[in-house]
Amino acid sequence: MSYSRVAFVAADSPQAREALSELTQRYGQHKPEDADVIVALGGDGFMLEAVNSYMAKVPIFGMHRGTVGFLMNRYEQGDLLERLQRTTEVTLHPLRMTAVSSDGKVHDALAVNEVSLLRQTRQVAKIRIFVDGKERMDELSCDGALVCTPAGSSAYNLSVHGPVLPLGSNVLALTPISAFRPRRWRGAILPHTAVVRFVMLEPDKRPVSAVADRDEVRDVVEVSVREDRSIAMRILFDPEHNLEERIVAEQFQP
Fold first, then answer.
1. Which residues are catalytic?
2. Which three-class secondary structure state does DSSP give residue 82?
3. What pLDDT does 251 receive?
4. Are the C-beta atoms of 84 and 250 separated by less than 8 Å?
5. pTM listed for this prediction
6. pLDDT mean by block of 10 residues, the chain; 254 residues
């Protein structure tokens, strides 16, 4: 595919805005709706914003002009159009979070990496867990819990000792965050078709927030998470440093 019409989008950081100016002068600028490809300049946080904003429209190629750059390619100005022709494309399917807050409102959001539940106060959270309608745990006492995709498994999930999932494995990880009871439970690996439902116990005394990547809902009483295969997010990577290789390499970091 030809990637001749490029839309550049950038984070608010000085280095990202500087890169935006330099690249648009060199390659021009198209509107995202008219472009063949979107080049996102920033870190992983901005990349997730760009994917959420432009999902399913055109592929996105990230270049690292931020802090964390796991989802980003190296930043170089030269030969960008030729470089884009050599990229490999990864298709990701997001998680869809449906959260009910204590006021009865229903909130819907998408996540490329994970949906996480987090206690809001000093009180430990108490959560009941259902998978595909079947109760799997009557009470998890914890700081929280998360469900992640393979693409997100090496992010927050890995930092709380969850498993790294290869791309294409068609599974999700359900991982507790600082579980107090049951103390030795380390989570579960579930098929990508699973629907995970969390029910908060004592939500007035033990309030919990739900976060889908960048979208947070406070004071949730119930949260459902499932993979949404109707949405395909297309991300481009340099062939010598693709996402699958990065995920494997993360398992061997000291």
1. 44
2. helix
3. 75
4. no
5. 0.83
6. 90 95 95 93 88 81 87 91 92 94 96 96 97 98 96 90 89 97 93 98 97 94 96 88 77 75
d(CA 156, CA 52): 18
Q: What is the C-alpha separation between 254 and 251, in angstroms, rounded?
A: 9
Residue 1 resides in a domain: no
Number of domains the chain contains: 2
Same domain as 118, residue 79: no
CATH number at residue 74: 3.40.50.10330
Contact 96, 226 (CB under 8 A): yes
Cα(11)–Cα(40) distance, rounded to whole angstroms?
A: 8
| Three-state secondary structure call for residue 46 | helix
65: tokens are 């002009």
Range of the structural domain that residue 34 is part of:
6-92+232-250
CB 242 within 8 A of CB 161: no
85: three-class secondary structure by DSSP: helix
At residue 151, the 3 state secondary structure works out as coil
Q: Which residues contact 18 (CB under 8 A, 6 or more apart)?
A: none
